Amino acid sequence: MVRLMARPSMKEAASNEKWRFPIWPEWSDADISAEKWDTGKAGKEKPGKGQISPAFDDPEGKIKLPASLKVHSWKRPQEFLTKEVPVIVQNETSFDLVSANEHIFCCELMRWIVSEIYALWRIYNENSLNSETPTVVWKPWEHIYGLCKSAKEPIIVYNKFGKYALKLYWMGCWRKIIVDDTMPFSEEENLLLPATTSQNELWPMLLSKAIIKLANTSIYATGKREMEEFTVLQTLTGWIPEVIPIQPEYLDKVWGFLKEIVPEFTLPERKSPELEITQDDTKTEETRDSELKNELSSVNKLPDSTERAETAGNISKETPPPPEPEVVAYAACTPLYLFEEDIFSLTRMADSSEKMRQYGLCHIHSHPVLITRTRSCPLVAPPEPPALPPWKLFRPKKEVVLKCEPPEPVVEKPEKFVEIASLFFKYKLEIIKIPTNTHVSKSILKKGFQSMSHLASVTETDENESNGDMNQNGRHSNAEDYSQKSSPSLQQNAEVLSKEEHDNISLDSKQTPEKADTDMRSQTGTKSKDETASEKISVSRETWITFEDFCICFQRLYVFHKPNTYAYNYQKTSFKSSDEEVFYYLIVDSLMPIEMLVSFSALVHWYVTEGTQQECSTGVLRIEYFSWQSVAPGELVLKMHTSATKATIVNLPVGRHILLFAVTCPMGHHIQLCTTVPCVFGEEDAVMPALQKESSRFIEQATVILRAVGNVINNYSSEDELPKALKELEVAYCPPGLQDTKRAEENIKIFHNAFWYLIEYVSEKKDLYRYKFAFRSFTLDFEITDISGGDIVFSESNRNETSSLVDATHSSNPSEISEEKSLSSCENQTPTSEEEAAALKIQAIWRGTYIRKILKSREPGTKENTDVEETLKNLWTMIELNFEECAVTLLREIFKRNFNSVEKFPCYEDESCKMFFTDYAVTYADQPPNAWFLVFREIFIVPEDMFILTKVFTTIPSCRLHVLDNDTQEEMPHAFFNVAPHVYPKNKKGYTFVAEAHTGEQPVPGGKWKLRFCTSQSALPFLSREAVNDTFSTLQFKEYYIPNKEFLLFRYFVKVTAPHTATLQVQTSNSDVLIKLQVLDNEKEITSVIGKGNAVIPVFNFRSNQSLLSSQLKKLQVIQSNTVKGLETGQLKKRSRNSSKDSKASSKADLVQECSVILTDESSASENFENNVGSPEQFHQYSIEALVLHDSWPLTESESLLVQELKEKQKDDIKVKKIANSPKSTRGSKDTVSEKTEKEESWKEGAPLESQPASAPYCILRIVSDQKEAEFLEVKKDTRRVDAIRAMKEAWESAEPGRAVKAFQERMRFINKYAVRDSEEPIAEAETDTLTPSSEEEGKQSPQRAIDSRLETQEKKWELIDLSPYTRKTMSEPVLINESIIQQQQIRKEENFNHFGQLCMLVKEQRQKEENERILLKQNILEMYENLQASLDEARGRVYSIREAYRNELLEAEHRKEEELAALEAALKAERKKNRKR
Q1: pTM recorded for the entire structure
Q2: What pLDDT shows up at residue 1420?
Q3: For residues 1329 and 1309, what is the distance between their CA atoms, to the nearest angstrom?
Q4: DSSP-assigned letter for residue 1315
Q5: Is the dihedral of CA 1316, 1320, 1325, 1328 positive or negative?
Q6: Cα angle vertex 664, ends 661, 670, to 5°?
């Protein structure tokens, strides 16, 4: 068993407990063939009993059943099958999973397992069982393997050891699920797993145990449903489930979708009257077979046992996929108890429950129903109207119905029916008889409202009750009574509910669908006992339900897609316990609209056995449009939450699209894409190369343009077809909508330039003079000058107008090359006016001749036309050798030149999805925790203005990239700590890319760091030197923070011996301190940066004060010239590193080479050389200092004490040391030694203050340089002030020995006399007097520390509290309060109160006035409305009276006409009688 470590939940993380969950292995026939089926431990012998037979126990433990099933004990087959021999399968042609399992149908999971097994049996085997040679295509027990020596030929036999392997689909592939044969039993000794009527058959139990194992990975312990989003059908077939909610506003779309995916019922064609007489609702066997063939045309066969889903990029080659993907659909209702908390859904719940009872279903026993067919016509063809006699066809009498109102059009609703199949029709449902007494049976569900329906009511009985005592006769009578009163459509439903015919899944009896037809029922006679017994076996039955009722009864539609019917399948699976997002990318490019099935499976918790439980959540898949050119998230396409498997269809328009798949899942996920077009799906590294190709629409547009060019070439000698071909070519290369606009001329010129570029590309710029005349003839463009390679008329060598004459002469007579050379030699001479006039005249004559010759080449039959056609056909032959590449080159050149109109091309939308990239990688060593280090620093050259996106790939927790423009020293903007995509203009010195990194609390192991450049152009940035440098030298200096007036952290001097590039970083022990790091040159700020706890200057170029030798200067100039040539060709010429290490002078030259290699011409190279090296007159004195801003570094008490000690130590360092005994002759040598020692200590990391405690406030300065350039840099601490004080005191001491001791004694006496007077424990003067020069160093620290501390306490004692912030001032000057002031204050208060009261009275009066006005306005409006209503009623009455009078007149007139007609008829009859008598 493969096991994977997973991260514990939040509760378990506190206790640091590790837990594991097994990932079932993928199915392998070799593993099954090598499986040991007898791996059981032998039992121990007990006294009086024999040895217990070995039995296999599932290492994963007992499965956890749903909460509705209470397990009391577990038994093996030998224990509950004492009289029968256990077998895996006994009857391979039929089975019954309903009769013996009514006690477990209270469990939703069991109902779904049984229903979906029957649904698969029906889908695969119904047609084959009804054929002449009955065969079983799909067998559920074939998923079970036990005692198999070969998986290809499984022998399903009982394993006495109790070990079985089942093949089920889970998380993207078929997997091996191991189970044992222990079965759960209830307290009543009922088996709690599905079983057939043959109790010794074990296949339903074993199959259900494995399915429950899979289901437990997606079922919540606290969930309301037992199923959640798990589907049994997927585990048995691998089909992908799509759940579609049935919503009222989308019913038309749902009906259209069902008609597309489900076979449709159609009436058979009538052939003879005999067939019409015998036609009824019940189909004959032949009709049923023909319909089942149509139905099974959308259902594929069961995949082979060795078949599995394709991995990403693999395409099935064994069997070609069908033209359209195949699906299977069924519907499901939501259980009633899920609506209890939502009161707004109670109405829909009640309607759904009532409708389901009408069709024999129940919400309590929710289960899936298979959708088999749709119907838009009646089941029975309507009878044809009786034939009319021929004499009635002449002048048919029209019936005229006179009405006072115009007739309303009768809108006939189309018939919409859906056929569903279910096992649980009328399961535990009874029709309620109307009671005659007042007592109501307890089993009847009381409703709080009176039903308005005319349908008969039904009773929901308890699940544990049996239906053996139900009154069948009463139910039939009620149904018959009701059928007489109901409408015809409802009568059919009632007849379906009263039908009690059952069919068994067997080879002996063939299945026929049940139809509502009273004629068929009247033909049935009495049934035998065998037939009655067979009917009791419940199987899936069908019934027709109106689509309207279907949408009321069911809330969800499950559509299962068959992945092997799609042309392309892509999968990604990952099992990793992490809450981090996982990203995948999809590139799809098509010329047709794209339909893609996206399936997402999430493993959110592991809860398969008893006693194991983990906190659960849902997996989230977010799909959005993605572009590497933007940092902002793209438009959201899809978002799915699931704990099992979900799928949906994503429709994309024509073109190229990039989609980002962001997955968040606690333990594992699986994504499967099924499409009919090829895609690229995977991680970023796998997807990026596909972006360099041109899009399909771009290639199509390019192909259309080049084919139009070929059409012109092929019809160049045709007088009729050539104008049409030229017009088609213009339509092809002009963007849509711009053919007849002002931009058309611009587009024509752009195409001509691009076409000449294509000619140069195809001919590789060889023998261009052959194609120039043909090009002029093809385009008739005499103004284009962008033609190179020795143009005949428009040559670049002679830019003036006279040059065209010389070139024309050269083209007509190549022997005149010598004359051309002589003319070129005379170019520098100043021509006279006569020569200019003659040249202009000759130029005009030859230009006219040349143009006439080009125009003549367009006339068919001429020699010029024949030559041009031959040249163009030779060109077309070379183009056809690489047609697609030439087409792309032509259109790409049009895109480069046509900036204004290119957006009109449809393929321009795909340009945002085209990307070129390049990677640069370095390695870094292991890093300690809480450290800063430099990862990458290089200079890149941008050959042209381009949009660049930079991406960093690393495992370092905190890494930041800086990009600086070396010309302006400006840093590129950031977005969310990343460098924002930006247009990098071409510059002289390039761009410096610097990557810095911080380690967290944990150490960072060594690894790989990669920088990626992404751009839409093929010309990518390139390095300024041969290879990337990944070795750096770091100088580190540690300083403790001592507060001062300038808020200065440190100050260092920098001395460089050659131009040097360095990175500066400052880090403080307190991360909340605002610091400013700056570099000064001659006390003038050059650059600075402000940070919080950390400040970084990514790049700073130090210039040296030493001038190079003349030989080095010459060498540098040679290097610069080589660099210029390398930049022009796009490749820089490098030198080997080994030659740069020979001497110090050569290394300096190499440094100058690296700094100056980024120049593009000689002037910029010399300028950069002067800037980097510097002239002898320019002097640089660099210093680095850091400041604390806004006094943002407050110190704690402990830190203040440590700072005080540091101050004392600093004072001690300044004090004069004893030099009386040292001779003057050795003083100079000792000073030299001390200077060397200080210099060496300054280079050590933290050496000056290593003895100080770690809790003291400190800061660290780091200077990072290239490894080979570290010797050019020298850093020294700024000690000028300390050195000046020390020198001054040394001078005093040398002039007057003992002065320092005397000054210290005087200071102590003064402090004891004045400052210590008020202290409790003054220091005795005798102790001060006893201090001698010999004991100075021993007693100078403790008295000073004591005195300073006492001075601080006295200052605190003497300070007065400032109460001004807490006092309220009412007057400008303080005045002593008295009675008059108190009276005045009281008078002011009363006046204020009175004034406020008056304002309140005015406000109340105003409010009352406004309220009265509103009341009056309301009354007026009501009166106005009453008057309007009265006038309207009066006017309506007048209209009604007039209308009634007019109606009466019409009726009277009509009555008079009828009377007149009657009288006329009577007169005619009387006259006819008279005539007859005569």
Answers
A1: 0.69
A2: 94
A3: 9
A4: I
A5: negative
A6: 65
